[in-house]
Amino acid sequence: MKRVVQWLQKNVGSFFQVHKSIKAKIFVSFSCLTIVIATLISLYWSQFTINSTTSALVDSMEKSLDSSLAQVENAVEDVRKMHTTLIYETTATDYLFDQDLRAPNKDWFEKYNQVYSSIRLMTVNLSRTVLGTGIFKANGETCTIGTTSLPKDTHLSKEIRENPNESVVFSLEKDRGERSSEVMRYLFVGRVITENDQEQAVIITRMNDAIFERVFEQTAYPGGFILLLDSQGNLVYDSSPGELQEVKSALIARDGDETQYMTLSHTSSVSGFRGILAIPNQYISQINATTYLQTTVIILVMVLIVAVISSVVTNKITFSLKRLSENMRQFGTEILPGETVHFAKIDSSDEIGELNRAFLRMTDQIHWLMDDIRLREEQKRKMEIQVLRAQISPHFLYNSLNTINYLAVLQNVDNIRVLTMSLIDLLQGAVNVDDQLIPLDDELKYSKSYLNIQRYRFPQEIQVEYQISPETLRWKVPKMILQPIVENALIHGLADTQKEKRLRICAYSLDQKELICTVTDNGVGMSEERIQQVMRQKNNENKMRFSGIGIGNVDARIKMQFGKQYGISIFSQEGVFTTVEISLPVIEEKETGNNKGGQK
């Protein structure tokens, strides 16, 4: 009981906080939707059941009434056959048509006994249907078997007189002392026998009252009744005599009130019998009430089942969500450096599990980025200290180099003078390497100054060939893009070769829209893998090099400044040559209103 109360408190509490909990939203939505659907289905089922029950009840009433009328018809037909057999298939004919009045003799007694025996045998065979049979001759003679309640000649209806030689069904009112049973009138089957249009005799058979009780006892419904009327509209049988007389009279008069009773009336086309079967609407309402009660119970049970299933399903669905929410809430708190956060494990393989795994990957990346930022900040501080320690003023360096150059001039030492001037030019170009655009002519001077310095380093002379289109000299290019390429050609292409070292630097344009600069050496060449490695290398950490600018850095600068359609391409064959091609937009000197300039 305690667990049930706790469960109700937990789930009912969530119900009243729908706007705060996704679990409550799912629970309420799922429950309401399921309950509405279940209620609609149950109501449709109950209405369908009621309609089906009512239709089945009407069908049952029709079948019962038709069956009862058919049994009465069969009983009457048996009597009709008995009359026909008695007249045409026995020796009764001589007796029936003998109208002479004389004293009984042996011959008369023989005929009478034959007729009597035939009537007695037939009456015994039809004892469940026939109560008695009598023959009334025109000369006054009679022959009767069974009941004495046979009508006299004066009681015969006009219908039997109007239909000679045919068996006619008629009824007579019972005596007052015999009206306590359900059978209200005597039922007879009579036949007038004629010859030459002269009435010879009348055969009358009284039907057994028990046949009606036997036929109709299973037809009536609780609280209802069944009536049987003859062809003249006289009430022959009443399953509940003395009750509901006004209702019955109205039904007999075909003016029944269907608000209290559901009635069904059938009339036989053979005998003219009319059967009326009535069922109180209260009986139908009780059946419908049972259906409604069953529907209500089903709905309540379904509501309870839905509530339990909804709770289980929502708990299962929101369990992973709740853990994910806890993980996010825990990650949202302040995390100290080096602190390890332990997240709740979610083994679900659905979208929530995938979301949690993505969240964990994101947290790992954030932690990695935080550690990387801390490491970079620490390295940055160390580098700032090192820069402060090693910082030398460029003006001091220029002045010192100019002093050396002046001494070389005074002492006529040309090689020192050339070397010093080349170094001064390189230092001027290397300072503030940014997006500044300079004429190609100036960029070539930096490369020439670098080559002048490197001539004293390499014992073997380097043959340098320049193929520069004159119009390209004034075109603008980014600063320090050729020197790193030339330096790479010397160090990686020509330094390790023993053959004659050759270097060719070209600049040209095929369409006056794109500037092509190439640096070709006849050194060791590069493999495709090495080319990819060089293109990925942004900086050179070799302390023997003049600058730390790599080919990849130059390519990235060009693409960033002018677009991805420009940049560096490398073509090489191992042991033969290496060509580095630089593609740039053509930028005239007059078009450079800013660092990037304008494209022609």
Descriptive report:
This protein has 600 residues and is an alpha+beta fold. It has 4 domains: 53-282, Beta-Lactamase (2-Layer Sandwich), CATH 3.30.450.20; 334-390, no CATH class; 392-428; 432-591, 2-Layer Sandwich (Heat Shock Protein 90). It is 50% helix and 18% strand. The protein contains 15 helices and 16 strands. The protein has helices at residues 2-15, 22-88, 92-96, 106-125, 158-162, 210-216, 245-252, 281-332, 351-390, 394-410, 414-430, 440-455, 482-494, 528-536, 551-562, and strands at residues 130-137, 142-146, 167-173, 185-195, 198-207, 225-229, 235-238, 261-267, 274-280, 437-439, 462-468, 476-478, 501-508, 514-521, 567-573, 577-585. The protein has a 5-stranded antiparallel sheet. It has a 5-stranded mixed sheet with strand order 11-13-14-16-15. It has a 4-stranded antiparallel sheet with strand order 7-6-9-8, with helices on both faces. Helix 8 packs parallel to helix 9. The longest helix is centred in the N-terminal third of the chain and has 67 residues, at 22-88.
In short:
The protein has about 600 residues and is an alpha+beta fold.
CA gyration radius, whole angstroms: 63 Å
Spans where pLDDT lies below 50 across 5 or more residues: 592-600
Major sheet size, sense and barrel closure? 5 strands, antiparallel
Distance between the termini: 89 Å
CATH T-level topology of the largest domain? Beta-Lactamase
Query: Quick one: overall form?
Result: rod-shaped
With strands numbered from the N-terminus, the spatial order across the biggest sheet is 2-1-5-4-3
CATH class of the largest domain: Alpha Beta
